[in-house]
Design brief:
The chain is mostly helical. The chain has four helices and no strands. It is 48% helix and 0% strand.
Length: 141
Amino acid sequence: MSFLIPFLYVLLVPLSIFLVLVVLMQKSKSDGGVGAALGGGMTEATFGADTGNVLATITRNGTIAFFVICFGLYLAQIARHRGVASKGSLPVIEAPAAPAPAPAPVAAPVTTAPAAVDSSAVTMPTVTVPAVTPAPAEPAK
């Protein structure tokens, strides 16, 4: 199973590019557009006079193969994820039967009072605030 998913992706990418090129090679109904710009007229020389049927058949078969490969990738991804889920990817955690006992109260530690601070050694700086003059209520004219 581990080789199937990368193998399908390797098939899908070139098939997608091939389908885009085949669709662009087809001649449009109005004989103009992208099909004519990318060589849609040259397909008659390559595949003969019945070019429309050949390219339509290639497009139809390529599209069927594209959808079969996409569906196979989808089923392979589902199978891979179910395999991971069935292995129990998440751990099972059981709750304890009884709550843990509360810790015993601890006696408060004994502290001593801090030593007295000499207030004469501490000096506070003085702050001076400049005088504020009020602004005029109405500007002069």
